[in-house]
Design goal:
38% of the residues lie in helices and 30% in strands. Helix 2 crosses helix 3. The radius of gyration is 26 Å and the shape is rod-shaped.
Length: 186
């Protein structure tokens, strides 16, 4: 989104849960990725700047919440110990990362926020007058005579026509996005 220096930006913290039981958030995902990368809880803890006990307890909490093993550990101390993620843990991480990616994309998607009425940029907007409304059972076709010598047609839902209280002669703006024409009214 185009933002001014002092504008607010949407943000959130993401976590996974099951049946209202917290599984993990960003910290747990970071821990599992470090264990996967370094093959060791000790090394992962060291790299993340947390104690071994904290890392072990956090992994144990995730495992209890999931109800299945998330680590395959091998005792061996300095020569040959280690930890690997189980398929359950890998699936959990994929789910977290996929969800995080989706949420981040939505937060950055100007057209999504515009569609729900939070912000509409000045680009791709044309002021005009409603010339005709053809209401169908699901969608309606609204013809707008814009100030530039042209007419733009938008196909929108009947509910949108009703919510905007559109009537012939209303001053509106045609909001153009890549795949559709939306309508805004002050």
């Amino acid at each position: 989104m185009t933002r001014t220096r002092n504008a607010f930006a949407p943000s959130l913290k993401l976590w996974l849960e099951r049946s209202d039981l917290y599984i993990m958030g960003e910290g747990g995902a970071t821990l599992l990725k470090a264990i996967d990368r370094y093959g060791s809880i000790t090394e992962a803890a060291k790299r993340l700047g947390v104690s071994y006990k904290y890392a072990w307890d956090r992994a144990s909490d995730i495992e209890k919440a999931v109800g299945k093993p998330i680590l395959k550990t091998k005792i061996g101390g300095r020569r040959g110990g280690g930890a690997k993620l189980t398929e359950t843990a890998k699936t959990l991480l994929k789910s977290f990362d996929r969800t995080k990616g989706y949420v981040k994309a939505v937060l950055k998607d100007e057209e999504y926020w515009e569609a729900i009425g939070l912000k509409i940029s000045a680009r791709n907007r044309f002021k005009g007058t409603v010339e005709s409304i053809d209401k169908g059972p699901v969608t309606s076709k609204v013809k707008i005579r814009i100030q530039t010598p042209a007419t733009i047609t938008a196909v929108i839902t009947k509910e949108a026509v009703d919510e905007l209280e559109l009537k012939l002669g209303d001053e509106v703006e045609a909001v153009i996005k890549a795949t559709e024409v939306m309508i805004a009214k002050e």
